[in-house]
Amino acid sequence: MPSALPRLPDRQAAALIGAYRRSVAARRNRTLVLAAVFVVLILLSGHLAEVRPGTLVSNIANFGNYLAKTVPSLSVQSFGSDVKAWYWNFPSWLKLLGETLLISYLGTLFGGLVGFSLCFLASANLVSNRWLRLGTKRLLEFCRTVPSVVFALLFVIAFGLGPMAGVLALTIHTAGALGKLFAEVVENIDMKPVEGLSSTGAGWVQTVRFAVLPQVLANFTSYSLLRFEINVREAGVMGFVGAGGIGQEFLVAIRNFYYTDVSAILLMIVATVITIDLLTEQLRHRLTDARGVA
Asked: What is the annotated signal peptide range for this record (predicted)?
């Protein structure tokens, strides 16, 4: 037989209900205060950054008009000749796009090698010398803090226009970014193989080679592929400051109001980036799956 629930005296029940309502009201007030602070910070940030919604609304039509002008006139009857006229400079653009990919590839390769060399010196579980570790970490921070386009501008001034400035800029920024990621991977390894080798009298280099590298190579490769994706996008912008690649031609088309050239080059860049993203994503998934199986 179900028993009746005990009922609190009215005085105690009223006290509990009052406490509950006060708690809910206090939580609601805190939420409102936080929301008000959040809104004030957004408005203050927008004011300091001179973000003017009125300007955006009044000029948004110009953006639409510009995009409309970049769309070429294509007809079904003469589709082939229209596309040919749209991509009238395709061989030259393709060559510059290839140059962009080479800049990305070399920047990723050289930067990855530098990051690989420095990451072990920045790992707390491998280097006991605090000053060496901190110095290496600060160097990596400097390399990745300065935007790669700023490095490219400096190298253009120093070495002149051309892809070399782009490669050097991407190398430095990639070394800083990958060096940090690699060091974090190394700091999270299983230390038992390291301790085992060290107990046999193995040197630091031998320990890294045989106890650390087998644990981190898959992650290193995955991060390098991800960085290559990023560098392809960044290399496309390098041309804006004269560091070679398709970006330089893209900037010329924008400045001279060659509307259909802008859309043609932009589509080539987007298609290339998407293709590389898909390919590297497949490779990274295979590496992840292989690591999971192992």
From this structure: none
* Cα–Cα distance for residue pair 267/97, rounded to 1 Å: 12
Helix (H, G, I), strand (E, B) or coil at 147: coil
Tokens of 266: 């932009």
Cβ proximity of 116 and 186 under 8 Å = no
Question: pTM score, two decimals?
Answer: 0.78
119, amino acid identity? C
* pLDDT beneath 50: ranges in the chain: none
pLDDT for 58 equals 84
Residue 238's contacts (CB-CB under 8 Å, 6 or more residues apart) are: 100, 103, 148, 149, 152, 165, 166, 169, 170, 244, 245, 247
- For residue 2, the model assigns a pLDDT of 55
What crossing angle do the helices spanning 90-119 and 163-187 adopt, rounded to 10°? 40
Q: In a 10 Å sphere around its CB, with 0-12 CB exposed, 13-18 middle and 19+ buried, how is residue 174 labelled? A: buried
